[in-house]
Amino acid sequence: MKALILVDIQNDFTPTGALPVPEGDQIIPVVNNLQKKFDFVVATQDWHPENHKSFAVHHQKQPGEVILLNGIEQVLWPVHCVQDSKGAEFIKGLEQSGIREIFQKGLDAEVDSYSGFFDNDHQRSTGLDKYLKNEGIDEVFIVGLALDYCVKFTAMDAKALGLKTFVFRDATRAVNINQGDDEKAVDEMKAAGIKVITSSEY
Ligand code: VGL
Ligand code: ZN
Question: Ligand 1 mean position to 88 CA, how many Å?
Fold first, then answer.
């Protein structure tokens, strides 16, 4: 059975948001159209406490700098997707009536969570793996923001869990801190056996 996974389609990842993803809002019509073709849709939501250690401001550093956080490399970000804030809400215009379940991530202030499945040290699960297994899902199609972070890590974990994994490239956009991060992410995913496709092929 197939599932469509909507990754972090939240206000803070739009061009005017706190962690702007260029053209992040432009995926909305593509995602809404795809949702019509799936009867099983779930979503993830980046959901940080205010004191989250991925926020540059808590280290007197600039966004984009990299530190070691509890032994793991951590890119520092602007304050974003704070629990219950406007920025953490799904982008207005995203069709939400078909979403069966929302999996929140990044709740632990000490460790970031790019993947919708596990946090970055792979210690805590969001429950998405068991949920999909329980529902008999063996094929996942991933869309959302951002391609070079949460979409990529969600897809890599899905593949590692043994799910047949697809990413709709035109239903994602990248942060691209460094030029070419989008293509690098696509290459990494393909090398891992993930199929990167476009929505018109489906
Ligand atoms: C994301 C950076 C920090 C994402 C979330 O959703 O791709 N990126 N938090
Ligand atoms: Zn985040």
Answer: 11
